[in-house]
Write a structure and sequence with these properties.
With 806 residues, this protein is α/β, with parallel strands linked by helices. Helix content is 37%, strand content 19%. The chain has a 5-stranded mixed barrel with strand order 4-9-10-12-11. Strands 16-19-22-15-23 form a 5-stranded parallel beta sheet. The protein has a 4-stranded mixed beta sheet with strand order 14-13-24-25.
Length: 806
């Protein structure tokens, strides 16, 4: 009988049965007379509709039906003109009506193979910002976009179960349904002779469904809402098709229904006082999700396989792509190769004057990327890639280039990092003095409702992007240790609270640090100028640029004019992105300042961001044979020179050259690495510090030439005797610290050694001390007051003797 007491028709009975079968799935909704009428209309719609025309795809086993939202709205205009408002304001009821109608259309019954129909709406529009989710949106269908910051474990949720009376043992006639997963037992027994109020569930009849909770953070807040705390919202994924489809750091598009939950219940409190509180939290029960991160990655790999399927197709596809991109980014790609690079370098951070090499290195790091597989690189000869199959079971090597800016304060290191973080499509800017180890990597948190969950840090959230770390030297040892795995293996392994996982961290690390004491000392090595940065961490940077404030009248004149011009522009309301004077990338002309205003060549950051996204979406450039030979020859030369001066040159340097060369080709949207690209990278690599344990001397930056003081046989004997003398002094005094006066006083007790040193007309004691420092037997650094020192050591800085020379 219906609600008015009338008899139901056979069709209405069938509709009600299917409706009740859907009640056991998740949410209990009463079937009204109007629902039956709407279901009949929707059944006729499905009978006359072609599902594929709606962008639909029905999975027989799960019953899941994906439908394009916009196409569905358009098709429903003839049936219900207000359908869009209905599905937005009453999404659960409208989707239930559509699902029941589809099951009636395909004559589905619970005894048949396959599941009940579940409508999944994809490409729901418009997308709503998380900041606009308020009380008025509760119960409405919304679509949000964000980044996954926390992922909980997949757990079974009981949707319904049969109950029986504890006293008489009779089972209740109706199955109890738990709306939104909230447990509610029947209040009394339905038997006429037993009115017991104690019911117990029959656990073997419970129907469960997979559920997972994730936390979503507002996407791209770094560029849109600088002064606001990023908004978060919890997403509840229900069903085997939705759970376990994302990881921390992934970018998701979620369509679902906004719901509310008592704040105290969310924290695990279920007492009467907690239920009486009226503070609620919003969450979204997802109807469909789209993992943008995984889809981009799969499309990128598929396009890379298609492009090089055959030589002719590859040349045609690449040519057409390059022509399209050249037309789209004509402002960037007009002119020669040197013009393109100069224009990009000048546009990176126009407010900072000079530092061409550092800006060029930062640009290359932004354009680096793409995981590579050992044995999977292709050498291109005559623009024709050789056929080579790559096993998917091999480990991957990192393809991101890391850059460290080290130098005097006030030279614009932080501004350049901020510029990179703004230009990069996916980036996070953090401060070394305000971040924690878990904030950088990942952590395991426990929630009252969902148990242990993985919470992503900056390196995971910026996966396939960049992390800019300012005040790098102010981080503690545990933070530096947490970066080691992420910077080399491009992943973060975590094992805490019974949770063991590996998270992707394919992130470019850009860091800036100030030297110990506030000013860089040329006569001390990088490790001595920044004693808080360990050598293993420094070795993971592809490029280390030392920025020194050299007082030179010519450059100071242009620098002061540039600063004054900036303030005048700012005072008159001009843009902050000012043009640098035209500076050439030729390393022979770095000291020459060319005049003239080049504001017309400065590219806006919005165009740069699009250009960078287009470059990263292209397949990884292939090395030509000539470029590979040039890089190999450079590496072998560096290795041969390293054997003479104890400079540690390993395969890590060769891999850095290859990564930078590919980034240099991608800078021009090229598909192959030419010898010119390799030559530019080799020249840039020579201006960076390749050996952090060496001092710069009179040079501003590092040099490709590793020649230094070479010792003859007599010099070697003097050096050996000096080491023995310092070793004996360390053992006798118990302190490894020495000043120059201490060493001179010790020499007075070794007359033969003292005479040998004085007998050298071209060398002094200071030269031999430099040799010991070059070989890492002496470090000139701030004295550690916690250790016992020689009584004669009174200055803040002294020489520390390292017996092993490492």
């Amino acid at each position: 009988m219906d609600v008015n007491g009338g008899m139901l028709s056979a069709g209405e009975i069938r509709i009600k049965q299917v409706w009740e079968w859907h009640d056991t799935a998740r949410t209990a909704l009463p079937c009204t007379e109007s629902d039956m009428e709407v279901v009949s209309v929707f059944e006729s719609f499905w009978d006359a509709c072609n599902i594929s025309a709606l962008g639909g795809r029905l999975d027989i086993l799960s019953g899941e039906l994906e439908i394009d939202y916009c196409r569905l709205i358009e098709a429903m205009q003839n049936i219900a003109s207000d359908f869009e408002e209905l599905v937005s304001s009453q999404p659960e009821r409208v989707l239930r009506q559509l699902s029941v109608a589809m099951d009636l259309h395909r004559s589905w019954t619970p005894n048949q193979r396959g599941g009940r129909c579940i409508i999944r709406l994809k490409r729901v529009k418009p997308q709503v910002s998380l900041t606009n989710l308020r009380a008025a949106t509760v119960g409405r269908l919304v679509c949000v976009r964000g980044q996954v910051t926390r992922v909980g474990a997949v757990k079974p949720l009981v949707c319904s179960a049969w109950f029986s009376c504890v006293k008489c043992g009779e089972r209740l006639e109706d199955r109890s349904v738990f709306p939104d997963g909230k447990y509610s037992a029947p209040r009394s027994c339905q038997s006429e002779h037993c009115k017991s109020m104690t019911m117990e569930p029959q656990r073997d009849t419970a129907e469960t469904i997979d559920v997972q909770a994730i936390k979503l953070q507002q996407y791209d807040t770094a560029h849109q809402e600088l002064e606001r705390i990023p908004q978060h919202i919890e997403i509840e994924l229900v069903g085997p098709e939705l759970v376990d489809q994302c990881a921390p750091g992934d970018e998701l598009v979620v369509a679902g229904v906004v719901k509310s939950l008592n704040a105290d219940v969310a924290r695990g409190r279920h007492d009467k006082r907690a239920l009486e509180r009226s503070i609620f939290l919003l969450y979204i029960e997802a109807n469909s999700i789209h993992n943008a991160t995984r889809s981009i990655s799969s499309d990128k790999n598929e396009s890379e396989n298609i492009i090089f399927a055959s030589n002719d197709a590859a040349n045609t596809t690449t040519l057409s792509e390059e022509m399209i991109l050249k037309t789209r980014f004509s402002q960037v790609m007009d002119g020669s190769s040197c013009d393109i690079v100069n224009r990009l370098v000048a546009s990176l951070c126009p407010s900072i004057y000079g530092h061409i090499e550092a800006k060029f290195g930062l640009l290359l790091s932004l354009f680096s990327g793409d995981q590579v597989t050992p044995g999977g690189s292709t050498i291109v000869q005559d623009n024709k890639p050789s056929e080579k199959k790559v096993s998917k079971n091999l480990l991957t090597k990192r393809a991101n280039s890391h850059v460290l800016l080290l130098g005097d304060p006030g030279l614009g290191k932080s501004q350049m990092l901020r510029a990179c973080a703004t230009i990069a499509p996916r980036s996070i800017y953090v401060g070394g003095n305000t971040s924690t180890t878990t904030g950088l990597t990942a952590s395991v948190v426990r929630e009252a409702r969902h148990g242990a969950a993985l919470e992503a840090g900056a390196l995971v959230l910026a996966d396939s992007g960049c992390v800019a770390i300012d005040e790098f030297e102010k981080m503690d040892k545990s933070q530096h240790a947490g970066l080691l795995e992420a910077m080399e293996q491009q992943q973060i392994s975590i094992s805490k609270a019974g949770v063991a996982a590996r998270l992707s961290a394919r992130t470019t690390v850009l860091a800036a640090a100030n030297p110990t004491g506030g000013q860089y000392d040329r006569d001390r090595a990088v490790t001595e100028n920044c004693t808080k940065l360990p050598a293993p961490l420094l070795s993971r940077f592809d490029l280390i640029f030392v920025l020194i404030d050299d007082p030179q009248r010519s450059s100071d004149t242009w620098l002061s004019s540039h600063v004054i011009r900036q303030h005048n522009r700012h005072a008159t309301g001009g843009k902050n992105n000012l043009a640098n004077p035209a500076l050439s990338l030729s390393h022979q002309e770095n000291s020459q300042h060319q005049h003239g205003n080049q504001s017309n060549e400065i590219i806006s950051w919005s165009i740069l961001r699009k250009y960078l996204s287009a470059a990263q979406s292209r397949p990884s450039p292939r090395l030509t044979r000539s470029a590979a030979q040039l890089l190999r020859a450079t590496f072998l030369k560096m290795r041969s020179e390293a054997t003479m001066n104890n400079t540690p040159i390993t395969m890590r340097q060769l891999e850095s050259l290859v990564r930078l060369a590919k980034a240099r080709a991608r800078l021009e949207l090229q598909s192959i690495v030419t010898p010119d690209h390799a030559a530019d990278v080799i020249a840039l690599y020579g201006t960076s510090v390749m050996d952090p344990c060496r001092k710069l001397g009179a040079h501003r930056t590092g040099s490709k030439n590793f020649a230094h003081l070479t010792a003859s046989s007599s010099d070697s004997k003097i050096v050996t005797n000096l080491i023995n003398m310092l070793h004996d002094a360390t053992v006798s005094t118990g302190s490894p610290w020495f000043t120059l006066d201490d060493i001179k006083n010790r020499l007075s007790h070794y007359p033969d050694l003292n005479t040998a040193i004085r007998g050298k007309p071209t060398k002094s004691l200071g030269d031999y001390i430099d040799i010991l420092r070059d070989q890492n037997f002496l470090l000139y650094q701030k004295r550690d007051d916690n250790n016992e020192a020689s009584s004669s050591v009174s200055s803040a800085y002294a020489y520390r003797f390292l017996n092993s020379g490492t």
